Amino acid sequence: MKSLVLATANPDKAREVREILAACMDLELLERPSELGEVDETGATLEENAGLKATSVANATGMAAVADDTGLFVDALGGAPGVYSARYAGERATYADNVAKLLASLEGIDAPRTARFQTAVVVADPSGVLVSVLGSVEGTICAEPRGANGFGYDPVFVPLDGDGRTLAEMSDADKHAISHRGRALRLLAERLTEEV
Description:
By secondary structure, the protein is an alpha/beta fold. It has one domain (3-195): Alpha-Beta Complex (Maf protein), CATH 3.90.950. 33% of the residues lie in helices and 24% in strands. Strands 1, 2, 3, 4, 5, 6 and 7 form a 7-stranded mixed beta sheet that branches. Helix 4 (172-178) packs across helix 5 (180-195). It is globular.
């Protein structure tokens, strides 16, 4: 497989996918056609949502496509926001809106603020799903946002594998080395290389 269409319409995710995959395999990543509409994420799991996006873009373009879906699962909130992470504070919520709602939801809760970030990555072509992988990183939710890098919940997520910094306080290289998306995409690269 020499090329894939990026199924994501999120420019922050697209940048990370490009950076991480470029570091571990020779693969041309094609832009998602701008005329394609949003794919309804109706799946009950990250894997299902990533599969819906990858399959939809593959069918629309006639080419293999790669999609991911990411969720933050907070133990004290029963796993929320989970598959609803991107729209936790509403359909048009900003990253800051989602972080604010998360921190408000944790106010007054004495339970440990343990959480995990998970990313499902799926490659599909018009014949169906070809590869599906999952990357995960354990961590905790800090009391207030820290750092100006990254996006989404990065300013409040402190990975256990790190040195006490939030993902938003890390350089891109440091974040990619231990992040959920970095782990999932490196696993994807291994799987794609094996199948060539």
